Amino acid sequence: MTAVVTGGAVVTATLDRLVRERATGALHGRAGALYLADGALVHAESPVVPDVGWRLTASGRLSRESWEEAVAEGGPDHRAGSLLVERGRLSRGELELCHLSALFDAAYFVLSPLDGSQRAPDRFLRGARHWFGPVRPVSVAAVRREVRRRRGLLERAWPCPALDVSPVVPVPVPVPAPRAVRRSPSGAVLAAADGVRTPTQIAGALGRSAFATLLDVRRLAAAGLVRTPAPGTPPPRRARPAAPAAKVPADAPEIFLLQRIRDALEAL
Question: How far is CA 58 from CA 100, 171, 203, 212, in A?
C-alpha cells in the first residue's frame, strides 16, 4: 500500500507520525529513502552516497563476486547482509560498522538535501523492506541528533555550502601539503580532486563516507588547499557518484568515526 504524504508536510512531522505508529515501510523522496521497521530506522539510501556494497568493494575488503553472490542469493529473502557474515565474508562487527556508516551517511543527505530543498519525502510504501535486511535498528531521534551534529561540524569547519556541490579545485601551492595532510583521509581527497568531480563523486570513487568527504573538502578549503567557489557561482548539474576505484588504501574507511557511532548507540 502506498500512502501519499500531503503537500506542505515536513520530514520531521512525517517521521514523528511514523514512529508513533511503529510503522514499517519505506519513505521515499527526491533525495533518497528511509526504511523503517516498527518505527526504527533500519536502512537508508541516497543517489549521492556510496552504499554498503560500494564501500566494501571499492576498499578491497570484499570482492565484487562475493558481494554480487550475497545480493543474488540473500536479496530475495531480505538477508543479503547477514549472508555475508554466515559465509565468513565479514565479521558481525564489520557488517554493523559499515552498515551504520552507510545508514547515517544516506540519512544525512535525505534529511539535508544538497540542493537546500526542505521538501518532505512524498511517498510512504507501507510494508516495504530493503533487500539488504536489517542489521542494527537506529532510533529516529538518534539519527536527528547526528544530522544536527554533522551540520554543525560543516559550519565550524568552513561555512560555505557551495563547496558541497561544486567541483573540488586544488589550489596551486609553492610547497606540497604537509605530510600529515597527505597521509590522512583528507590527503586522499586532495589527491582525487581534479577540478571536475564534486565531493560526493570523489566519495564514490574512493568508496568512503560522503559526509566525511564533504567535511574534508571544507577543511581543505579552510587550509587554503582547495578553491572556495566565488559567491553566486551556479552549482553544476546533479551527477551520480563516480565509479569506485579498483582499490584504495586499507585505512581509507573512517574507523574512528564508525566506532564513535557504535559507542554512541550502545550508550542510548
Answer: 17, 27, 10, 16
pLDDT of residue 201: 95
Query: Which residues on adjacent β-strands are paired with residue 26?
Result: 35, 125
C-alpha to C-alpha distance for 43 and 98, rounded to whole angstroms: 12
For every residue of 180-218, DSSP letters joined together read HHHTSHHHHHHHH--SS--HHHHHHHHTS-HHHHHHHHH
- For the record, the C-alpha cell of 116 comes out as 537546500
Nearest to 54 by CA among 256, 224, 252: 252
Written as one string, the DSSP assignment of 41-107 is EEEEE-TTS--HHHHHHHTTSS-HHHHHHHHHHHGGGT-HHHHHHHTTSS-HHHHHHHHHHHHHHHH
Reported as a single tens digit per residue, the pLDDT across 147-165 is: 999 999 999 999 999 999 9
Q: Which helix (H) or strand (E) holds 154?
A: helix 140-157
The residue whose grid cell reads 565468513 is 88
- Considering the entire predicted model, what is its pTM? 0.81
Burial class (CB in 10 A: 0-12, 13-18, 19+), 149: exposed
